[in-house]
Structures are given as structure tokens and as C-alpha cells.
Amino acid sequence: QRVELLNEIDFIWDAESAEWMEMMLAMQRFHNHYGHTYIPKRWKENPRLARWLQRVRSDHEKGVVPEVRVQLLTEIGVTLDQRSTLWEQMFAALVEFQVEHSHVNVPEEYPENSELAWWVGTQRRAHKNGNLDAERLARLNMLGFIWDPSRLIWQATYKRLCTFHQQYGHCAVPRKWSENMELALWVGAQRTNRKTGDLDEASIQALDAIGFIWDDTVAKSEELFFELTRFQERFGHCNVPAQWPESPQLGLWVQFQRQTYRRGALDPERTTRLDALGIDWEWLG
Fold it and tell me: What gap in Å lies between CA 117 and CA 250, rounded to an integer?
């Protein structure tokens, strides 16, 4: 009698079939929620479903998955090809990484998912060699994928320059700026790279946007003016000793400005800026 009652509600007696139907329902729910069926191998929310799908793909390669089941899986967008599946799983993992970190710059050594880090490197190599499928390229680009890792370093240092610009109102980082020597060297490298043609147009435009000075002579003058501003803020005057040990070049530069002013040959704009700092033109220090 109990058997008959269960049969009336289509009870599944075979345990394997019961598990398959349970997992199919879980797959359908996943698809309805995320809009795809590419479950990461290490999906924390339902590791059992991830393992089951991996087993189904392996069985499909062996040709032991009934056609009716293959059709049901295909109808909800499940890809059974192992290579395509791996790419999709890694892409899904990359999307998860982006949600968590707000970027897709997976470190080369990423202990939480070393396989994802390896895959990201593989995509870069495939793109460099011209072997990356156009559709996959477009999908990665939509995530903001960085193809050249060295670009990440450039962008990080550029952000520090932007912070400097916001704080001081210019990009004249002194060449021996003790507060951030790395930034000072990087600024000089951008000028050199542009001269040699090794700086891309996007980088040039980004630097132009914050008033970057490309001319070495003008840049050097602005850097020394900035140093003088800092000196004035620190000591309350602009009387830099000619042989000031912290920056002998600054002392000599200020002395040269005074001499040029006395000859009546100093640029009016520079005279105005130095006057605003309260320079004593007659000081002989």
C-alpha cells in the first residue's frame, strides 16, 4: 500500500536517479540565480553540486551519460566539453574575485586559488601569442582585465602621483625627494620613456591630465621652487644657505635667482611667485 502511494507521486526508487534529479534541480536554481551554469570547482555554497557536475562531465567523456540526460543538461546551458568547461569555470571564479576585490588583478601567487592565478597567466600568454578567442577576449575586457602586468605597477605609481598632485597642486616631485624616492625616480623615468618612444599614448594623456611637465629644464626649476616652498613652510623664510647640506642645489638655485633679479633679467612671473613666498632679494647669505 505504501509503495502504491509513493508511486502515485512519482517517487524515484533508484538512489542514483534520485541524486541526479536532486542535482538537476540544484543546477536549475543556480542557472535561474546567476544566469549561467559555470560553477567554480571550489564553490563554497554547494561543493557537492560542483563535484557532481565535474563527475557528469567526466562520465560524458567516457560516453556513459544517457542521451536524455545530456539533452536536459544542454537545455539549461550546461557545457559538457571539458576544455570549454574549465575556461568557463575559471571565468566564473574570476567574476567572484572581482566581486570580492573590486578588480581582476589576481596575484601571481594567490594561495586562496592557485589554479585561478595560473589561468589568468595563461590568458595573458594566449593573448600575447594571438591565440585567444575573440569572444573570450571581449568578455575578459568587459571585466577590466589587465593584459600587461607591468601596467599594474604603472597605475599604482600614477595613483601616488595623483595623490601628490592633490596635496600640492602640481607634479613637480623633487628628484631626490626623501619622502618617496620611488615616486621621484618614476617621474623622471616617464620623461625619459617619452623621449625614447617607450611611453604609450594612454599614459601620456593620463599624465597630461594632471599637468605633468615634460620639459626637463622647466621641471627642474619647478622642483626647486617646490623645495623652496617647503623650506619656507619649515623655517618661515627663503634664506637658504648657499651650501645648505640638506640640498646644496637648492641653496645655489636661490642664490642664482637673486643674482638674476638684481640684473633685471628674472622672468616677471617667477619674480611674482618668489615675492609671494616672501623672498628677501637683498639677502647675501
Answer: 48
Joined grid coordinates for residue 235: 623655517
Which one-letter amino acid corresponds to residue 196? T
Dist CA 25 CA 30 (whole Å): 9
Report the alpha-carbon distance of residue 228 to residue 277 in Å, rounded: 9
- 245 by Cβ neighbours in 10 Å (0-12 / 13-18 / 19+) ranks as exposed
Distance CA(20)–CA(56), nearest Å, equals: 10
Q: Is the pLDDT of residue 45 over 70?
A: yes
pLDDT tens track for 95-138: 989 988 888 888 888 888 888 888 998 899 899 889 898 988 99
**C-beta pairs of 281-285 under 8 Å, 24+ apart in sequence:** 283/239, 283/258, 285/239, 285/240, 285/241, 285/242, 285/255
pTM (whole model) above 0.90:
no
